[in-house]
Amino acid sequence: xxxVNLYYVFMLTWLLxxxxxxxxNSGGGLITSVDGNINCGETCIASYGSDQAVVLQAIPxxxxxxxxxxxxxxxxxxxxxxxxxxxxxxxxxxAFSQVSELxxxxxxxxxxxTSGVTCWGYNGNGESSVPNNLSNPTAxxxxxxxxxxxxxxGVxxxxxxxxxxxxxxxxVINPSAIAAGARHTCAIDDTWVIxxxxxxxxxxxxxxxxxxxxxxxxxxxxxxxxxxxGVTCWGDNASGQSTVPDNLVNPRxxxxxxxxxxxxxxxGVTCWGANYSGQSTVPxxxxxxTEIVTGLGxxxxxxxxGVTCWGDNDFGKSAIPTxxxxxxxxxxxxxxxxxxxxxGVxxxxxxxFxxxxxxxxxxx
Length: 364
Known about the structure:
Elements: H1 3-17, E1 19-25, E2 29-33, E3 39-40, E4 43-48, E5 52-60, E6 64-71, E7 79-83, E8 90-98, E9 101-104, E10 108-113, E11 116-121, E12 139-142, E13 146-151, E14 154-159, E15 177-180, E16 184-188, E17 193-197, E18 215-218, E19 222-227, E20 230-235, E21 253-256, E22 260-265, E23 268-273, E24 291-294, E25 298-303, E26 306-311, E27 329-332, E28 336-341, E29 344-349
Parallel strand pairs: 1-8
Antiparallel strand pairs: 1-4, 2-3, 2-5, 5-7, 6-8, 9-10, 10-11, 12-13, 13-14, 15-16, 16-17, 18-19, 19-20, 21-22, 22-23, 24-25, 25-26, 27-28, 28-29
């Protein structure tokens, strides 16, 4: 075969083979193309023979927002890629981030995302009636029968106020974190930690040795903060829930249950306090846990294997549903558990007041 013929064979093969458009998705949504060739949640490739403009679309899941494009569409608000045999291979990356929070109270459940706050379940004290004047809420916490949120105006609380737990003090300045307990509430603001409501066990009397607090959590009648000096707890200690173990190494998360407490540190998960249902007996086999949450008598962790719960299993609240798919966040209440996964919000356990019946708007 002559060199000329070889050249034409090479050119024909090149023209017919086209070029590939590769889309890499960080997760948290779906990337599609208007022409239907791209539809992926992770990585997908489509081949184009003739030059054309391919328009990509980003569709976030419930609880996520689209952060932007990279690669061939870096810096663009909208992504249109010219692809074909004369344009060369193209690669586009897409990034989503989670902007959501689950919060379970005594008998009600709440969820926060970019659309605002949604609560459902028991509403005998108005704890599930979200105020319509919240402005860009960024955090949510549910107590026994009250709920609090952070928004542009500071702290807003609603529901039961029998102990003053929903009456936010005027002295709260630029709050950055909020925690609702059974009948008390705490916040971290520009000044330090401030708590209000019930103080029968000293749960609202903040000790002076809390240094630069970054995290605040509230249990039934005790409170814990995570700061420069590690975890500090105060209030009710009848079950040892406020006696922090001295073997925590670089703790980075803490959760306060009814009468037990758990922390996440370099060694994994450590729990202390009440253990009448095994809620403080951490199971072996957790792999790289990233989240720990505590309830009335059960505890749950999120790790590389998904969700693991232990302790009391009344109403099946510690039995993980098989339909969970790639959970990214968890929360527990008195007798219920919720998670955010690929399908949106999913809840299980006691449903006596509809607290595990997730609104349709929160399901993908």
